[in-house]
Specification:
The protein is mostly beta strands. The chain has a domain of about 35 residues. The chain has no helices and three strands. A three-stranded antiparallel sheet has the order 2-1-3, with no helix packed on it. The radius of gyration is 15 Å and the shape is elongated. The structure holds zinc ion. Zinc ion (ZN) binds next to loops.
Length: about 60
């Protein structure tokens, strides 16, 4: 198993904090940790966790 994860390619995320929360994030349930893709035009706090019904929050 060699030649993998040589450090190139896509998947460059999670680096360089400080950027504003833009579209394309995730919403997470603070209760059970369920994560869903953030829907444009629908704030996370307007969604409820499908598992436990808790109001979801924006994941950073
Ligand atoms: Zn939940």
């Amino acid at each position: 198993m060699r030649g993998q994860n040589t450090g190139r390619g896509q998947g460059r995320r999670g680096m360089g904090g400080g950027q504003a929360l833009g579209p394309g994030g995730e919403c997470v349930c603070p209760q059970c940790g369920y994560t869903v893709q953030h829907q444009l035009g629908t704030p996370c706090f307007n969604m409820k966790c499908p598992k436990c019904g808790t109001q979801m929050i924006r994941k950073r």
